[in-house]
Design brief:
The complex is a heterodimer. Chain A is α/β, with parallel strands linked by helices. Chain A has 19 helices and 23 strands. Chain A has 4 domains: 6-187, Pyruvate-ferredoxin oxidoreductase, PFOR, domain III (Pyruvate-ferredoxin Oxidoreductase, domain 3, 3-Layer(aba) Sandwich), CATH 3.40.920.10; 208-391, 3-Layer(aba) Sandwich (Rossmann fold); 406-477, no CATH class; 485-598, Rossmann fold (3-Layer(aba) Sandwich), CATH 3.40.50. Chain B has helices spanning 38-53, 68-71, 90-100, 112-116, 120-129, 173-180, 193-205, 231-237, 287-299, 317-321, 339-347; strands at 60-64, 81-84, 105-111, 133-139, 142-143, 149-150, 184-189, 209-215, 238-247, 262-266, 272-277, 303-310. In chain B, helix 1 packs across helix 7, helix 3 packs parallel to helix 5 (120-129) and helix 6 packs antiparallel against helix 9 (287-299). The chains are: A alpha/beta, B alpha/beta. At the A-B interface, strand 7, helix 7, strand 9, helix 9 and helix 10 of A face strand 2, helix 3, helix 5, helix 10 and helix 11 of B. Strand 17 of chain A pairs parallel with strand 2 of chain B.
């Protein structure tokens, strides 16, 4: 890090002041210069007035994980000066608002301090508090463009696109950009040694957040019923679904909707609606976060036992309880895998980035209908809400949904006695009938004990026959869900296992470890239940590290329970403070462990 | 229906409806409720109502939660799908099913525990959404399956079988529904089949949620002296404030009669509900007068029954959501997936 097209910077402001659009502008401008870039929005659970940060990492090598330190900080919030200045790497830069005298908190040896009077410039050139506050963000964007060598033409084009029909706003924004740009040019050495130079590395990429991608996946999968209760950080998923449906699912002639979105009274109802719709034959989903998953437990068990498909997106946040709603974590792994009372096990998919969210959405609906069961997509706040550079999404127009075993009216016509839970094919999956299809397909869904025909039972053998088949069905899913992605290199003597949003940091760590002479193979787990390849990997190495973002090593616990590989043979690497994982955490944990083991 | 299993043979002389089905074809499996349970009478009335309307059984779905009332969905219409879900959550499951397939007739059976305690929130919000369904509350003021605890509909001063006195005020589903904007509100008594059947028929055809509170005595735990949900108490205190006749479109078409004391309301399918006023000045199309009359009866320790309020002009969930008329489950995938060309165009927005 710290060079041309290889640096990171952080903008520290107060939330509710309009800095988000300036930050997106900067990130997108860098992206359009062809340079790989990622943004992390570190925001408070609040509407206005609390500290908020935006971190942008520029990486010519395409690394997207959060950087551990930054090269430059724009410190615009006095409340966080001390924290902000501490984050600057030695030799780095601090930009402050020189409208006021330099705060002593910001003074630090070994860094370059650059003062730009953002407030003063706005005061002189704009009228009214609102404009002055909002445009201050654009002024700092202009200053950063000069300092970091961001192409001003690119920014100008973006502003023109954005404010095409709002000439007054366009003019004001252009003025603000120039104010910052010109001041920095005149008063600082521009560009700084850390700066951008155009590349051609983003042509096949887009900037997208995981919630939008997951929503798009639900649209393409053919989901028609979405039920939800607003909760950070999953809210934007349903909002995106609604937006896409309005665009793509409005009947051109009648203006009517080919979808139904229900904002429920709580997460229990949201789960019930998704399950009711799944039972009736629709592709249905709900999106939530940890607290919602806790509330949905009873319904999840019902859907599991009565074998009703539904997709649950869990955009995980920091728990337990309310926890830190705007911080990320992978703390729901165990509660998803075994959600609800009694013996239950569920298919869980672990997307690593927005592209995965799109693909796995479709996979989730197929698996839910094929296995007639709830399927979880375990995303997290970092994936769901942050701007990721990921590959441009494509769609195979020959795709058709896997509806699983659903008996048609014609097939039911010849059925004398329909037995809902009879395993005819020996794969643990019984055929279902949809309500309304045919009188011969009528059956009674019950969460109470039932036999293979669907009839009420309190008989031990009849009960066990059904739950044993459910176990076989689940075991069969291990060969169908996405298998692990394994990256090997020659002579590796350690293995690293991880999942979900940790992937970017772990892949970067593998490269860092190689530079230190440590060859590590890496397995990214993509789904639960685990396929046989997962256990094989765990048994191949003398030392296996399991990297995850929770306190209790939940993935390791799951691996131990489900593969039988001894718990203590896997070294946990845990990061659960709520921030996106950095490669350094992984590199240091692995390197330190190995050094310790050798001495 | 009865605790005695009926022989499977059908009497050849049984009357058939327009679908060629006899009333026996609308029955279900044998009831496991206590002999004399009011819920079995409600089931019998439902069988009669569905048969008289000639509902195609497989186009109906029976929805329930948990409790004695919820068990009854197994005891009628065996050729219909049934969904015995989780306690107090039938409204959300029905909401989802209706969202997916708007063409089925949804028959929700609940109880006072299921709807007024654990499921009060779900009931309230299903009313607000106006999910098109029949919503029957078999109301007995008591938790039967767990052996006799008071429910949220127990009146102040009523006593349990063990002699305890209820001191908490009751929740009246009728007043609740009127307050929340329900478009069809009725109360009846399981012992009054003549009143119940036409109300159920009207409810089954209502363009929105038809909420029917049925006082349905629990013979085992709440049919004693001191109970206000007993057969004796209800018979003595029931006041029918509007009597409904149901006139299906296909049977008889009569001009809205200008008979004195009769109000006619046309249902969305063209059939008609006619009210005979049994109470001076009662107007079943006025939410305010319905509320006032129910309250006035309550203060006199009377139970107001009949079709208390109806509004056929209200919008149901699908009208509010402006959903296509084809059930969503019947839309071909090609109408749901925008395809790769649209995706590639969309991708430009993210560059």
């Amino acid at each position: 890090m710290s060079g041309i097209n290889d640096f990171a910077f952080r903008i520290a402001t107060v939330n509710g002041t309009g800095s988000a659009s300036a930050n997106s502008l900067l990130m997108q401008a860098i992206f359009r210069m062809g340079v790989p870039v990622t943004g992390k929005n570190i925001f408070p659970s609040n509407i206005q007035g609390l500290p908020t940060f935006y971190e942008i990492r520029v990486s010519k090598d395409g690394y997207t994980a959060r950087p551990p330190v930054v090269d430059l900080v724009v410190a615009l919030n006095p409340a966080t000066y001390a924290r902000d200045v501490a984050l600057v790497r030695p030799g780095g830069y601090l930009v402050y608002d020189a409208s006021w005298p330099l705060d002593p908190t910001l003074v630090r040896e070994g860094i370059t301090i650059l003062g730009i009077p953002f407030g003063q410039l706005c005061l002189e050139h704009f009228v009214g508090d609102r404009d002055r506050t909002l445009l201050r963000n654009i002024v700092y964007a202009g200053a950063l463009a000069a300092l970091l060598g961001i192409d001003l033409d690119v920014i100008a084009r973006m502003l023109t696109e954005k404010f095409a029909k709002k000439q007054k706003l366009l003019d004001a924004n252009n003025t603000a950009i120039r104010l910052g740009y010109d001041y920095a040019k005149a008063h600082c050495e521009c560009p700084l040694p850390i700066h951008l130079e155009p590349m051609e590395a983003t042509g096949e990429f887009i900037i997208l957040d995981g919630n939008t991608a997951a929503a798009l996946g639900a649209v393409y999968a053919g989901a028609t019923v979405g039920a939800w209760y607003p909760i950070t950080p999953s809210t934007s998923l349903m909002e995106a679904f609604k937006g896409f449906c309005e665009k793509f699912r409005t009947d051109p002639e009648t203006g009517q909707s080919r979808y139904c979105i229900v904002q429920a009274e709580d997460e229990l109802a949201a789960a019930g609606i998704a399950i009711g719709a799944g039972w009736a034959g629709a592709r249905a989903f709900t999106n939530t976060s940890g607290p919602g998953i806790s509330l949905m437990q009873e319904f999840i068990g019902l859907a599991y036992y009565t074998e009703i498909p539904a997709v649950f997106y869990d955009v995980q946040r920091t728990g337990p309880a309310t926890g830190m709603p705007t911080r990320t974590q992978q703390g729901d792994l165990l509660s998803l895998a075994y959600a609800s009372h009694g013996d239950t096990k569920h298919i869980v998919l672990f997307p690593r980035d927005p592209e995965d969210c799109f693909r796995m959405s479709v996979t989730a609906f197929d698996l839910a209908e094929r296995f007639q069961t709830p399927v979880f997509v375990a995303s997290d706040l970092d994936i769901g809400m942050n701007d990721w550079m990921c590959r441009r999404l494509t769609w195979d127009d020959t795709y058709r949904p896997d509806r699983g075993k659903v008996l048609s009216a014609d097939e039911l016509e010849g059925v004398k006695k329909f037995s809902r839970y009879l395993d005819v094919d020996g794969d643990g999956i019984a055929a279902r009938s949809l309500p309304g299809a045919h009188p011969n397909g009528a059956y009674f869904v019950r969460g109470s004990g039932h036999d293979k025909h669907g009839a009420y039972t309190e008989d031990s053998d009849a009960y066990q026959e059904v739950v044993d088949r459910l176990a076989r069905k689940f075991a069969g899913a291990a060969d169908v869900v996405p298998g692990p992605e394994i990256h090997r290199q020659a002579w590796a003597d350690v293995g690293i296992v991880s999942l979900g949003g940790c992937d970017a940091a772990v892949r970067e760590a593998v490269d860092q470890l190689r530079e230190r002479g440590i060859a590590a193979d890496y397995m990214r787990i993509r789904a639960f239940p685990f396929s046989a390849a997962v256990k094989e990997f765990l048994e191949q190495y003398g030392t296996v590290f399991v990297v995850e973002q929770n306190r209790d090593a939940q993935l390791r616990a799951l691996l131990t329970i489900e593969t039988g590989v001894p718990r203590d043979s896997m070294i946990p690497v845990l990061d659960y403070g709520g921030m996106p994982l950095t490669a350094q955490v992984v590199t240091m944990a692995v390197a330190n462990h190995l050094t310790g083991a050798h001495t | 229906m009865t605790s005695i299993a009926k022989p499977p043979v059908r009497h050849p002389g049984l009357v058939r409806n327009e679908l060629g089905l006899s009333v026996r074809d609308y029955e279900g499996s044998m009831s496991t409720l206590c002999a004399g349970c009011g819920h079995d009478s409600v089931t019998a009335a439902l069988v009669q109502a569905a048969w008289e309307l000639a509902l195609p059984p497989h186009r109906a779905a029976k929805m329930s939660g948990i409790g004695c009332s919820s068990k009854t969905t197994a005891y009628f219409m065996r050729q219909s799908h049934g969904f015995n879900s989780v306690h107090g959550r039938m409204p959300s499951v029905t909401t989802g099913a209706s969202a997916a397939n708007r063409d089925l007739t949804y028959i929700g059976i609940s109880g006072d525990g299921d709807s007024l305690s654990i499921g009060l929130g779900q009931l309230s919000h299903a009313i607000r959404r106006n999910v098109r369904m029949l919503y029957v509350i078999d109301n007995n003021g008591v938790y039967g399956l767990t052996k006799g605890q008071f429910s949220a509909s127990a009146d102040v001063g009523s006593t349990s079988k063990k002699g305890e006195t209820n001191v908490q005020p009751p929740i009246d589903p009728v007043l609740l529904a009127l307050t929340l904007g329900a478009t069809f509100v009725a109360r009846s008594f399981s012992g009054d089949k003549a009143q119940l059947v036409p109300i159920l028929k009207a409810g089954l055809l209502h363009n929105g949620m038809a909420l029917i509170d049925v006082i349905s005595p629990c013979v085992t735990f709440n049919d004693h002296e001191g109970s206000t949900k007993s057969y004796k108490f209800t018979r003595e205190h029931e006041v029918e404030i509007s009597a409904a006749d149901f006139v299906p479109l296909r049977r008889e078409i009569t001009a809205p009669a200008a008979e004195a004391g009769v109000t006619s309301v046309t249902m969305h399918d063209g059939s008609m509900v006619r009210f005979r006023q049994t109470h001076d000045g009662y107007d079943p199309t006025s939410r305010e007068s319905a509320y006032a009359h129910v309250r006035a009866c309550q203060l006199r320790h009377e139970v107001a029954t009949g079709l208390l309020f109806i509004d056929e002009r209200g919008s149901d969930m699908h009208a509010m959501a402006n959903t296509v008329s084809t059930p969503l489950v019947d839309l071909p995938y090609e109408q749901l997936c925008p395809g790769n060309a649209a995706l590639q165009k969309l991708m430009e927005k993210y560059r």
